[in-house]
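Hello, quick one for you while I still have it in my head. My current little project is about how a certain protein chain folds up. You're getting the sequence in one-letter code plus the fold written as tokens. Would you mind checking whether the tokens look sensible for this chain? Here's the protein in full, and shout if anything looks odd to you:
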Amino acid sequence: VCSFLCCCKTPQMSWVTEKEQWLIDWSDAKCLKELSFDAPGGGVARALQEKENPLDVFFSGLVEVGGRCLVCRASGLTVDIFDISPISEILSSWRVHLPSPVVQDVGISHVSDGNEACVNLFFLTKAQAIHRVQVLLQHQVLEVVLSGYTSCSLPSPPSSFCALERDLAVVGCFDGTLHGFHLPSASEPSPRGPDFSFVDASVIRKLFSGLLPPSAPVVLDMAAVGPREGLAFSSGIWLLSFSADGQLRLWEARRRRAKLVTKQTLVSAVQEQQALSLSGSVSTYLRVSPSRTRACLVLRSSVYVIDLSSSTLSGTPEIVCKELHPPFPGALPSLVSLSNSTVWSFWSSAAREQLFHYDLNSPDAECWKLRALDAAAACQDTEQQVKQLVAEGSDGSLVERNPSTFGHGIIWTLLQQQEAWKLEEEGFDAARVEQAVGQFLKELTLDELVFRWWMGRIFLPGRFSTSVISTALEEAQGRRHAASSAVMLREQDCESSLRCSVQEHLRDQAAGFDMGARMSDSESNPVQRASALAAAASEFIRICLVVWKRRHQVCGVAVSSVWASHAWFPASDIAEASETPLGCPVLLCAGGVSCVRAVHSWPERWWATLHLSRDISNYEKIELENVLEMSRLEEWRLCGTAWFLAQAVGNANLGVSLSLSEYQDCQPGQCMADFVHDSHEKLAACVASCAQRLTLSSLTDQLSSVSKALSAITQGGNLPATASVFGRRLEVLQGQWLDQCAANEPFESCLCLSDLLRGGILASETSYSCNAMRDLLLLCMYSKGETGQGLGQAAWSGLESSLSAELPSQLCLLHGLGLAAPPTTMPSVTGRFTLDEDVVMQAPDHSQEIVRGLSWLPTRPSDLWASRFRMPLGRRRGLGLRPSMASLQTLDFALELACWQRWDALRSWSASAVKREPPQKEVAAYMAGREWLASQRYAAARDAFSRAEGKASSIVEALQRASPPLGVPDEVLLPDVAFSEHLANLFRNQGQPEDEYSYLCRAAISAQASPEGTAGMRQRLWSAVFERALGLQKWDEAFETLLRIDAFENYLRMLSQKLRSCGRIELMLKLPEPHRSYFLSNLHEHASIGMPTAGSDSLACYQHLHALYFSDKEYLKAAGVAHSLYAAISSSLKHFAPSSREARSETSDFLAGDCISKAGEVPPSRPAGQTTLQALNPYARSLDHVWPLLEQQRSALLMLISALTLTPEKMLLVPSSKAFSSASLVADDMTALQSWFTQAEACHDMAISLADARRLLAIVEAEMVLSGRDSLPDPAATSEAVAELGLLRLALQVSRASGLDMWQCAFKPFVRLCLEAEVAPDEKVEAIASAARGPAISYMFTRSDGASPLGSGGSIRRAWWQTLEDSLKEVTSAKALDAAGARLFSLVANEILSSPMSGERRLPHFLVKALSQGQWVTLLRLYMKHRLLQESVELLSDRLNHHSQLQVTFLSAGRLSSPLADFPLRWQ
């Protein structure tokens, strides 16, 4: 600062209109592919490999084709190809391994195809071989393939190299020869000579005349020039070369020859070099502009601009050269590049190196001012004084310019910026900080405040990349860095893992410093702890600077046309694409790449210019007047005075104290008050001298314009709401495009390299604005002191109050912009709900999340925000707009951070919102709720959201701009309703259905209560509430919500289905009309759709219908439902029963007759020769598909019986038809279709009585017993089979229900079973009885306890005979046997006597008794038939005795009776 006291009449000062901005590190690239050439040189190649230094790195020029931007970096035997296109979603690279090192500085060239589909890269190695690599550009991800190599036979080592076509390259040698080589498509390992040579005809003539020595001058460099149009080989290609003799030559190359078009001698170069030969110069090279109409030649001490535009336009060869004078005495050029209108060059001397730009054409000052006005958020309504302030110096005008340096403008480099940052960290004194702010420390301790400030300095936006910090951390810990920062951060789950690592390192280092007390001692002095932490942080920053300088070593400068559209435009109106600048300088460094971008923000331009003046004062003598008189604006002098005051008193102590206002509720003026008068007396006099230059009469206007200009860039008050960008509208503060792109130009939301550049610019502008506000606030406070007398104290109060209110908020924003972390995407949390029942209450699948765009690189919040200000301009081209500072304060920016889960940056934004005027505590609470929700702290999130309801309208307005928007199109948006619906969606994405349901209920109630709510909105919300209640099994709540839905049909169906599955169907009894009618109709529909099997929805519908009708005492309807269920199950069982023909073949018609009938005519019920006990398996398993149906059919009949019992009619009329079924209908069979209708017309009503139902029940129960068989038999066979199993009583019921002969279908099989049991083993008999245990045993025994028979002494055989006796008595209930009863008894007796297993063939006593009393003749006949003479005689004697006793009775009656009258034989 003291150097400003010196005086110089001709200082070299200019405005800073361009700055260097770091883009990305090479170490963060992702190598997609490695390729390798075979080594043709053998031992020679290996020898060259051993001599090559792999650390010797150099770059090619930029390769720009079709919107792509490539660069090659050669190091040793490898060449890395990087894709640094602005639209690239990844920094991709391809590594090519060569058998020999590339010729230093000249061995890389390229040629692109005319259709921009391919780029050919050529590498000339020291083994004199040309290797060709093709880069295919058709796809989104580039493809790199090897395209062969050609070994060249050269007379001497190569000195220059240039590719002219994809199969033509030119090589210059140190012997002065220039050769052309045609490159075949296949590799040529054998060396071959050139196809033709470039020869100057005038040189040949002079050689013959003896005027020239035989050696030709070496070609130092050459380049292809001329327009890109008309590059057909037949028309020739222009080649510009420069030789050691100081001559420029323009050649025209054809297929097999080349000729010299023109040449020009640079006389000044020869005079300067004199006897010194240029052949030893390694800094001589040519650079060509993108249009190929201009070139620059760089010599040791001079730069020449070569203009070929006149040759291009007229066709006449003409070379126009112009020498650029150095910008300062003794300057030598090092790295130079040019665009179509500007030259960018590094000039250096013994102790100075600076980057300059030189305008070859007249600069468009109005365009610069327009962009400066847009960047400063000034529109047409802004005061003229403010317009002049924000545009001052934007054109880079010089003050008292030296004619010899006219046109040179200084570019503010990152190295100069690092020095400025370093000065702000000097002079730290913990005791001084405690003296200044100790009384204000409440929530923080002194050491914590100091530690946070130094951490902020390490992670200052734009200062060090995460790769640099991670490398410095490795080196500080004594380890070499082995991985990029992206790898380090990717391995950590913590968002700020690098910050945590740095914090841990600094605390460990601080603990090692001997400050008089141990760091772990809680009673140690806070000042000592703070000093130790500051020392550790300062040392770590020093290591970071070492690493940064090592990586920032500039190895090349190139100009990019594709990057120009991403570094120039702020978010403002852009009418034509022609407004895009023609070039953007790109600095290729050893560790990464940076860009030179325009400075549009006036605080950044003014303060960078002031910093530049201090830097220049290290080399030139500059007086304060030279700086303050750069502009005639009084505002410039005001800001210059503020800056100088800050430089005089500002250091690390001021920065630490000011940071307290960022963390606590403390005014920045209170934090800085103690430092206002810390300047040296001599410096204080200089500050007073600066202040005296201020015009006090207009001070109020000056302060007002400065305040308005600051407010314009920080709050955007004068910024237009929308901007027109190439016909598309953009909300400049919200970053929202209002117009849709074309189908082939979709808006891309993923991150790309362009976002990194524009995000860094936004962070830099924010940092400079904070510095400007800090310095101006310091000047305001200075004006109140004794040394500030005469500055007009009353005029400063307004500016001071506005700065005090705005500065803490901006500091919080700046802190958040420095928090880099790997990006993570979140599913969309906006939009309305899907009412599909299949997705009700399904949590989001986070495992399917896809991260696109720089997914492995740490990015800043400003980078994420910048991605919203990008617009496509065609295939692989785009336009990147620079967001304004004011957009960082919008709620849209905070929502963007929340979507990317950048919670640390979001906390800084929330702190900034709380510190604004008025404070936005509700919005901060909403953001806190979003973070707590993501952290699964649901109770805290609910509390925060409740506190945010006061700003629901603002939050909803921002959410409405999101994609997709809230609500539905053309629907009235109610803030309270939309906010509650949004919160419900947030909780849904976190898998919290209870909270989602709660907020949806709140939204629906609010919509119902609001008079502005539409019917569609209410119905949509109540439908969503119903679905969530259904998913949570809140049946009562879902039932109540259902009554609020107008179109209830689908939801009623959903509810009934859920209630049927859980057994809560009683809720449906409360349904009012028309809900009840629809519900019953729906149940009927569902019941008829499917098969009513166990567990099916159809069966549940039948049961619920029966229950509903039965509970309402509609018994006939309940009976009808039960019968329908029975009929439906019967139709399902049809395919299990045999057909009538099969049944007839197995069981013939029953034969009528008595015991006299022939036994052979009676069909057997079992296979011949097999007994009943042998044929039946009592342990047979029921078929799984038959038993459930029979069980449900039995239940249906029980339901039918219970309903019919309560009806007075005891009868039900139901429709029936014969074989009427739609299942047999074939769509393409017209005969079947007509038959179907005929059968339908034949339907008639039939009556089902209670007795019929009971008979059907018996049949079903019998079928259940027989369900273990392969198929269900007909009723006759069923009855027989049941009787054979011992279930006589059940067989009798089946026979009665089906009208069958009880003897043939029931008694006969049972009698045979009894006879077989007499001779069968006990195990067989017990097995049959065991199979009937349970309810079925009542059909087997007359008396039982459910497990065994009673009244038979435990004998199963005796119990069966007892069951036979009781059943016969029940069938013949009359006291005397009638004909039917006599028939049954006689048939039973005949079966017993006919059976070979009857033993002695004696009839049971009950049979003899029953027949002898009423039908003794029948019994006698049976005896006689079976030749039982003894039994016959006994029967006859018994009857005679009985007749003798009755004779008296007959005689008294006057009648004559003889027993012989009934005798079956005729007496002779």
Summary: DSSP finds 51 helices and 38 strands in the chain. The two ends are 169 Å apart (CA to CA). The mean pLDDT is 77.
